[in-house]
Amino acid sequence: MSSAQDTKVSRVFAVVNAHSGQAAPERVIQTLRTHLAAHDQDCEIHETREHEDLTSIVRDAVRGGFDTIVAAGGDGTVSAVANGVVGTDARLAILPLGTTNVLARELGVPLDLEAACALISGPNGTAHIDGMKVGEFCYFTQVGVGVDALMIHDTSEVDKRRMGAFAYVWTMTKNLLGYKPRRMTITADDRSVRTRSLQVLLANCGALGVSGLRWGPDIQVDDGRIDVCIFRPRSPLDYPRIAWNFLVGRHGQETRLTYLRASRSVLVQANEPLPVQGDGEIITQTPLTVEIVPRAVRVVVPAKIDDRQGQSRTR
Protein backbone atom coordinates (compact mmCIF):
# COMPACT_ATOMS: atom_id res chain seq x y z
CA MET A 1 0.00 0.00 0.00
CA SER A 2 1.41 3.36 -1.04
CA SER A 3 0.78 6.71 0.58
CA ALA A 4 1.77 10.34 0.32
CA GLN A 5 3.13 11.32 3.71
CA ASP A 6 2.34 13.92 6.38
CA THR A 7 -0.90 15.26 4.96
CA LYS A 8 -2.44 17.86 7.28
CA VAL A 9 -6.01 17.80 8.55
CA SER A 10 -7.93 21.08 8.76
CA ARG A 11 -11.74 20.83 8.68
CA VAL A 12 -13.19 17.55 9.93
CA PHE A 13 -16.74 16.22 9.53
CA ALA A 14 -17.36 12.99 11.45
CA VAL A 15 -20.20 10.54 10.87
CA VAL A 16 -20.69 8.36 13.96
CA ASN A 17 -22.83 5.22 13.79
CA ALA A 18 -24.10 4.75 17.33
CA HIS A 19 -25.18 1.18 16.54
CA SER A 20 -21.76 -0.14 15.41
CA GLY A 21 -19.60 -2.24 17.70
CA GLN A 22 -19.30 -2.01 21.45
CA ALA A 23 -17.88 1.51 21.93
CA ALA A 24 -20.34 4.10 23.27
CA PRO A 25 -20.81 6.95 20.77
CA GLU A 26 -20.11 9.51 23.52
CA ARG A 27 -16.68 7.97 24.08
CA VAL A 28 -15.95 7.89 20.34
CA ILE A 29 -16.88 11.54 19.92
CA GLN A 30 -14.96 12.70 22.98
CA THR A 31 -11.83 10.76 22.03
CA LEU A 32 -11.86 12.17 18.50
CA ARG A 33 -12.43 15.74 19.70
CA THR A 34 -9.62 15.42 22.26
CA HIS A 35 -7.07 14.27 19.68
CA LEU A 36 -8.08 16.94 17.14
CA ALA A 37 -8.12 19.72 19.77
CA ALA A 38 -4.55 18.82 20.74
CA HIS A 39 -3.57 19.82 17.19
CA ASP A 40 -5.85 22.90 17.07
CA GLN A 41 -8.35 21.10 14.83
CA ASP A 42 -12.10 21.27 15.26
CA CYS A 43 -14.71 18.72 14.27
CA GLU A 44 -18.39 18.76 13.36
CA ILE A 45 -20.21 15.59 14.47
CA HIS A 46 -23.14 13.89 12.78
CA GLU A 47 -24.72 10.92 14.57
CA THR A 48 -26.53 8.59 12.20
CA ARG A 49 -30.29 8.11 12.19
CA GLU A 50 -32.42 5.43 10.59
CA HIS A 51 -33.35 5.79 6.92
CA GLU A 52 -31.22 8.88 6.29
CA ASP A 53 -29.14 9.33 3.15
CA LEU A 54 -25.60 9.35 4.55
CA THR A 55 -24.00 9.75 1.14
CA SER A 56 -25.93 12.96 0.44
CA ILE A 57 -25.13 14.32 3.91
CA VAL A 58 -21.42 13.72 3.30
CA ARG A 59 -21.55 15.29 -0.17
CA ASP A 60 -23.08 18.41 1.36
CA ALA A 61 -20.29 18.48 3.94
CA VAL A 62 -17.63 18.23 1.23
CA ARG A 63 -19.29 21.02 -0.74
CA GLY A 64 -19.30 23.03 2.50
CA GLY A 65 -15.50 22.89 2.65
CA PHE A 66 -14.78 19.95 4.97
CA ASP A 67 -11.60 18.28 3.69
CA THR A 68 -11.54 15.24 6.00
CA ILE A 69 -14.60 13.05 6.42
CA VAL A 70 -14.51 10.54 9.27
CA ALA A 71 -16.55 7.33 9.08
CA ALA A 72 -16.95 5.91 12.59
CA GLY A 73 -18.63 2.54 12.23
CA GLY A 74 -18.43 -0.78 10.42
CA ASP A 75 -17.78 -1.52 6.76
CA GLY A 76 -21.35 -0.59 5.78
CA THR A 77 -21.00 2.86 7.36
CA VAL A 78 -17.57 3.33 5.79
CA SER A 79 -18.99 2.42 2.38
CA ALA A 80 -21.90 4.88 2.63
CA VAL A 81 -19.64 7.69 3.82
CA ALA A 82 -16.97 6.93 1.21
CA ASN A 83 -19.53 7.33 -1.57
CA GLY A 84 -19.94 10.96 -0.57
CA VAL A 85 -16.19 11.45 -1.05
CA VAL A 86 -15.78 9.62 -4.39
CA GLY A 87 -14.21 11.82 -7.04
CA THR A 88 -13.49 14.75 -4.70
CA ASP A 89 -10.31 16.11 -3.10
CA ALA A 90 -11.62 15.36 0.40
CA ARG A 91 -10.13 12.42 2.30
CA LEU A 92 -11.93 9.57 4.02
CA ALA A 93 -10.74 8.71 7.54
CA ILE A 94 -11.85 5.49 9.25
CA LEU A 95 -12.65 4.89 12.91
CA PRO A 96 -13.25 1.12 12.80
CA LEU A 97 -16.10 0.21 15.14
CA GLY A 98 -17.67 -2.73 13.29
CA THR A 99 -17.52 -6.50 13.55
CA THR A 100 -14.96 -7.19 10.81
CA ASN A 101 -13.55 -3.78 9.70
CA VAL A 102 -12.15 -5.25 6.48
CA LEU A 103 -11.11 -2.00 4.80
CA ALA A 104 -9.40 -0.66 7.92
CA ARG A 105 -7.42 -3.88 8.29
CA GLU A 106 -6.41 -3.81 4.64
CA LEU A 107 -5.14 -0.23 4.90
CA GLY A 108 -3.32 -0.67 8.19
CA VAL A 109 -5.67 1.67 10.08
CA PRO A 110 -5.44 0.91 13.83
CA LEU A 111 -8.41 -0.93 15.30
CA ASP A 112 -7.83 0.70 18.69
CA LEU A 113 -9.95 3.84 19.12
CA GLU A 114 -7.20 6.01 20.62
CA ALA A 115 -4.68 5.01 17.97
CA ALA A 116 -7.15 5.52 15.13
CA CYS A 117 -8.01 9.02 16.39
CA ALA A 118 -4.30 9.81 16.72
CA LEU A 119 -3.83 8.77 13.08
CA ILE A 120 -6.56 11.16 11.94
CA SER A 121 -5.11 14.11 13.87
CA GLY A 122 -1.74 13.36 12.27
CA PRO A 123 0.83 12.80 11.08
CA ASN A 124 -0.70 10.58 8.43
CA GLY A 125 -0.58 9.76 4.75
CA THR A 126 -2.99 9.37 1.85
CA ALA A 127 -3.77 6.27 -0.21
CA HIS A 128 -5.91 6.20 -3.35
CA ILE A 129 -8.19 3.15 -3.39
CA ASP A 130 -10.29 1.68 -6.20
CA GLY A 131 -14.05 1.25 -6.18
CA MET A 132 -16.55 -1.25 -7.58
CA LYS A 133 -19.57 0.61 -8.93
CA VAL A 134 -22.98 -1.09 -8.89
CA GLY A 135 -25.65 1.26 -10.22
CA GLU A 136 -24.83 4.66 -8.73
CA PHE A 137 -23.05 3.30 -5.64
CA CYS A 138 -19.42 2.21 -5.12
CA TYR A 139 -18.19 -0.61 -2.90
CA PHE A 140 -14.64 -0.94 -1.67
CA THR A 141 -13.99 -4.33 -0.03
CA GLN A 142 -15.85 -7.19 -1.72
CA VAL A 143 -18.99 -7.83 -3.75
CA GLY A 144 -20.26 -11.39 -3.50
CA VAL A 145 -22.84 -13.75 -4.98
CA GLY A 146 -23.46 -17.03 -3.17
CA VAL A 147 -23.04 -18.26 0.39
CA ASP A 148 -21.44 -15.02 1.64
CA ALA A 149 -24.56 -13.05 0.68
CA LEU A 150 -26.75 -15.63 2.41
CA MET A 151 -24.49 -15.47 5.46
CA ILE A 152 -24.84 -11.70 5.67
CA HIS A 153 -28.57 -11.85 5.03
CA ASP A 154 -29.14 -14.46 7.74
CA THR A 155 -26.84 -13.08 10.49
CA SER A 156 -28.83 -10.97 12.93
CA GLU A 157 -27.62 -7.80 14.63
CA VAL A 158 -28.25 -9.49 17.98
CA ASP A 159 -25.93 -12.37 17.07
CA LYS A 160 -23.24 -9.98 15.80
CA ARG A 161 -23.29 -8.04 19.06
CA ARG A 162 -23.27 -11.23 21.14
CA MET A 163 -20.75 -13.34 19.21
CA GLY A 164 -18.81 -10.82 17.12
CA ALA A 165 -17.20 -12.22 13.97
CA PHE A 166 -18.04 -15.78 15.05
CA ALA A 167 -21.70 -15.01 14.29
CA TYR A 168 -20.80 -14.93 10.60
CA VAL A 169 -18.86 -18.19 10.88
CA TRP A 170 -21.81 -19.92 12.52
CA THR A 171 -24.28 -18.68 9.90
CA MET A 172 -21.89 -19.58 7.06
CA THR A 173 -21.54 -23.12 8.40
CA LYS A 174 -25.31 -23.60 8.55
CA ASN A 175 -25.76 -22.25 5.01
CA LEU A 176 -23.00 -24.41 3.55
CA LEU A 177 -24.68 -27.59 4.74
CA GLY A 178 -27.72 -27.04 2.55
CA TYR A 179 -26.45 -24.84 -0.28
CA LYS A 180 -25.90 -26.27 -3.77
CA PRO A 181 -23.75 -24.67 -6.48
CA ARG A 182 -25.70 -22.60 -9.02
CA ARG A 183 -25.19 -22.29 -12.76
CA MET A 184 -23.47 -18.97 -13.47
CA THR A 185 -21.78 -17.10 -16.28
CA ILE A 186 -19.05 -14.70 -15.18
CA THR A 187 -17.59 -12.17 -17.61
CA ALA A 188 -14.50 -10.20 -16.57
CA ASP A 189 -13.67 -7.60 -19.24
CA ASP A 190 -13.61 -9.78 -22.40
CA ARG A 191 -13.24 -13.23 -20.82
CA SER A 192 -16.25 -15.38 -19.88
CA VAL A 193 -16.54 -18.52 -17.76
CA ARG A 194 -19.63 -20.75 -17.48
CA THR A 195 -19.72 -23.01 -14.46
CA ARG A 196 -21.56 -24.29 -11.43
CA SER A 197 -20.40 -22.13 -8.54
CA LEU A 198 -20.87 -22.08 -4.80
CA GLN A 199 -19.51 -18.55 -4.54
CA VAL A 200 -18.40 -15.75 -6.86
CA LEU A 201 -16.47 -13.03 -5.06
CA LEU A 202 -15.26 -9.75 -6.55
CA ALA A 203 -12.35 -8.79 -4.31
CA ASN A 204 -10.97 -5.27 -4.09
CA CYS A 205 -9.57 -6.09 -0.63
CA GLY A 206 -7.79 -9.37 -0.07
CA ALA A 207 -8.61 -9.75 3.64
CA LEU A 208 -11.04 -12.56 4.48
CA GLY A 209 -12.83 -11.05 7.47
CA VAL A 210 -10.92 -11.18 10.75
CA SER A 211 -9.33 -14.57 10.10
CA GLY A 212 -5.99 -13.30 8.82
CA LEU A 213 -6.60 -15.30 5.64
CA ARG A 214 -6.79 -13.74 2.18
CA TRP A 215 -8.96 -14.37 -0.86
CA GLY A 216 -5.83 -14.46 -3.00
CA PRO A 217 -2.10 -13.74 -2.81
CA ASP A 218 -1.92 -10.63 -5.01
CA ILE A 219 -5.17 -8.75 -4.31
CA GLN A 220 -4.49 -5.05 -3.76
CA VAL A 221 -6.96 -2.27 -3.02
CA ASP A 222 -5.10 0.27 -5.16
CA ASP A 223 -3.98 -1.58 -8.30
CA GLY A 224 -6.78 -0.48 -10.65
CA ARG A 225 -8.26 -3.96 -11.05
CA ILE A 226 -10.65 -6.39 -9.40
CA ASP A 227 -9.89 -10.05 -8.72
CA VAL A 228 -12.84 -12.38 -9.34
CA CYS A 229 -12.70 -15.57 -7.26
CA ILE A 230 -14.94 -18.43 -8.46
CA PHE A 231 -15.46 -21.37 -6.10
CA ARG A 232 -16.50 -24.61 -7.85
CA PRO A 233 -16.65 -27.48 -5.32
CA ARG A 234 -18.29 -30.63 -6.64
CA SER A 235 -19.45 -31.74 -3.19
CA PRO A 236 -19.06 -30.86 0.50
CA LEU A 237 -16.11 -33.26 0.53
CA ASP A 238 -14.13 -30.57 -1.34
CA TYR A 239 -14.63 -27.98 1.42
CA PRO A 240 -11.87 -29.17 3.79
CA ARG A 241 -9.27 -29.21 0.99
CA ILE A 242 -10.26 -25.74 -0.21
CA ALA A 243 -10.14 -24.43 3.36
CA TRP A 244 -6.70 -25.99 3.89
CA ASN A 245 -5.27 -24.45 0.71
CA PHE A 246 -6.56 -21.05 1.84
CA LEU A 247 -5.05 -21.58 5.28
CA VAL A 248 -1.57 -22.35 3.94
CA GLY A 249 -1.72 -19.78 1.11
CA ARG A 250 -1.81 -22.26 -1.79
CA HIS A 251 -4.63 -20.53 -3.66
CA GLY A 252 -3.05 -21.20 -7.05
CA GLN A 253 -2.90 -24.94 -6.44
CA GLU A 254 -6.60 -25.28 -5.67
CA THR A 255 -8.23 -26.97 -8.68
CA ARG A 256 -11.78 -26.01 -7.63
CA LEU A 257 -10.92 -22.29 -7.52
CA THR A 258 -10.71 -20.08 -10.62
CA TYR A 259 -9.41 -16.49 -10.73
CA LEU A 260 -10.28 -13.83 -13.28
CA ARG A 261 -9.08 -10.22 -13.31
CA ALA A 262 -10.89 -7.16 -14.61
CA SER A 263 -9.83 -3.56 -15.07
CA ARG A 264 -13.08 -2.36 -16.69
CA SER A 265 -16.17 -4.37 -15.71
CA VAL A 266 -17.56 -7.65 -14.40
CA LEU A 267 -20.92 -9.27 -15.23
CA VAL A 268 -22.35 -12.13 -13.14
CA GLN A 269 -25.42 -13.96 -14.46
CA ALA A 270 -27.18 -16.88 -12.79
CA ASN A 271 -29.96 -19.25 -13.82
CA GLU A 272 -32.09 -17.82 -11.00
CA PRO A 273 -32.07 -14.54 -9.03
CA LEU A 274 -29.48 -14.70 -6.24
CA PRO A 275 -28.79 -12.13 -3.50
CA VAL A 276 -25.70 -9.93 -3.84
CA GLN A 277 -23.73 -8.42 -0.95
CA GLY A 278 -21.49 -5.37 -1.15
CA ASP A 279 -19.25 -4.28 1.73
CA GLY A 280 -21.18 -6.50 4.11
CA GLU A 281 -24.72 -5.39 3.15
CA ILE A 282 -27.29 -6.98 0.84
CA ILE A 283 -27.48 -4.58 -2.13
CA THR A 284 -29.26 -6.24 -5.06
CA GLN A 285 -29.69 -9.57 -6.85
CA THR A 286 -28.33 -11.13 -10.01
CA PRO A 287 -27.77 -10.32 -12.82
CA LEU A 288 -24.95 -8.16 -11.45
CA THR A 289 -22.96 -5.57 -13.39
CA VAL A 290 -19.91 -3.98 -11.75
CA GLU A 291 -17.80 -1.14 -13.15
CA ILE A 292 -14.23 -0.73 -11.85
CA VAL A 293 -13.43 2.84 -10.74
CA PRO A 294 -9.65 3.28 -10.28
CA ARG A 295 -8.43 5.69 -7.58
CA ALA A 296 -11.99 6.40 -6.50
CA VAL A 297 -11.32 7.67 -2.97
CA ARG A 298 -8.46 9.28 -1.05
CA VAL A 299 -8.08 7.65 2.37
CA VAL A 300 -6.16 8.59 5.52
CA VAL A 301 -3.55 5.88 6.25
CA PRO A 302 -0.35 5.57 8.30
CA ALA A 303 2.40 7.79 6.89
CA LYS A 304 4.59 5.29 5.11
CA ILE A 305 5.34 4.21 1.59
CA ASP A 306 5.25 0.55 0.67
CA ASP A 307 7.86 -0.39 -1.95
CA ARG A 308 5.98 -3.30 -3.52
CA GLN A 309 7.83 -3.25 -6.83
CA GLY A 310 11.29 -2.08 -5.85
CA GLN A 311 10.63 1.64 -5.98
CA SER A 312 8.47 4.04 -4.00
CA ARG A 313 5.27 5.37 -5.48
CA THR A 314 4.04 8.58 -3.89
CA ARG A 315 0.43 9.35 -4.60
From TrEMBL:
One of its GO terms (cellular component) is plasma membrane. Keywords: ATP-binding, Kinase, Lipid biosynthesis, Lipid metabolism, Magnesium, Metal-binding, Nucleotide-binding, Phospholipid biosynthesis, Phospholipid metabolism, Transferase. Its cofactor is Mg(2+). It is an enzyme of class 2 (transferase). It comes from the Bacteria. InterPro entries: ATP-NAD_kinase_N, Diacylglycerol/lipid_kinase, Diacylglycerol_kinase_cat_dom, Lipid_Phosphate_FormReg, NAD/diacylglycerol_kinase_sf, YegS/DAGK_C. Gene3D superfamilies: 2.60.200.40, Probable inorganic polyphosphate/atp-NAD kinase, domain 1. PROSITE patterns: DAGK (PS50146). One of its GO terms (molecular function) is ATP-dependent diacylglycerol kinase activity. NCBIfam families: YegS/Rv2252/BmrU family lipid kinase. This is Diacylglycerol kinase. It comes from Paludisphaera borealis. The lineage of its organism: Bacteria, Pseudomonadati, Planctomycetota, Planctomycetia, Isosphaerales.
